[in-house]
Amino acid sequence: MPATPPRRKPRLRTPATIMLRTVTITTMMATIIMTSIATTIITTITPMLMTTSEPVPAELQGGMTADEGAALYRLMTWLSPAFPVGAFSYSSGIEWAVEAGDITDAASLRDWLAAMLTDGSGFCDGVFLAQAHRAASANDEAGLREIAELAAAFVPSRERQLETSTQGRAFIDIASAAWTCDGLDELISACGGGIVYPVAVGIVSAAHKIPLAPAMHAFLHALVSNWISAGARLVPLGQTDSQRILAALEPVVVSTAKRALQASLDDLGSATFRADLASLRHETQYTRLFRS
Questions:
Q1: Which terminus of the chain faces fewer neighbouring Cβ atoms within 10 Å, N or C?
Q2: Distance CA 95, CA 291 (A)
Q3: What is the pLDDT of residues 87-141, one digit of tens each?
Q4: CB of 151 within 8 A of CB of 177?
């Protein structure tokens, strides 16, 4: 009979052996999982990296084009209180109104300025700006000259004439010196003489291809800001009250801008007689901080 092979003794599994095998299996599983995760991440990120390297149009990014950015930059500069047109020297008759007791606090200053915006020089200046911008954009030299002459004649007092013509000249001179612009000199020459402030802003904005609507809003904001600054120094008012007045006049500025954009020269007119009298009487006021 063939010899029976000897039986193998069963291998005893000690706790150390079981633990070693468990650790080995766990390590293998972790390696497989990490490899799977890394593959998924690489697969996901690679198209993203390829996509972000391509230029995205400005309109898809929610940003502005280069021309829009340049237009905004110039408007913010030209109609900033820091732009040296001398606006801080003029009050548009507010100084006399404070001395006469018409303006005594933040509420009365707000009401005075709201009337000037809607029914006074604010609306009229807006109309002149819009008409000058359109005539300059169309290279209508005859129309531009007519608008410039009418705007200069429309000012109700000598001091207001000094105020708006001085600022207009300064605005054109400084903007022309800092930003070269083809065709601007011809537009200025077409006016044939002195150019008041709103007409100057309209001409320069049109020459630089800046849209009319934002130019209008920026101009009226600058106008109101200067009036508030004068009132704050004269009443006097604090910075917080000044900003509250500016915030309260926001809808008035928006509605006035809309009306001025839709108006024609036939719609010009002022009903703020007290403000016009204030600018007239300021000429003989005994003590004065402002030139108007």
A1: N
A2: 9
A3: 999 999 999 999 999 999 999 999 999 999 999 999 999 999 999 999 999 999 9
A4: no
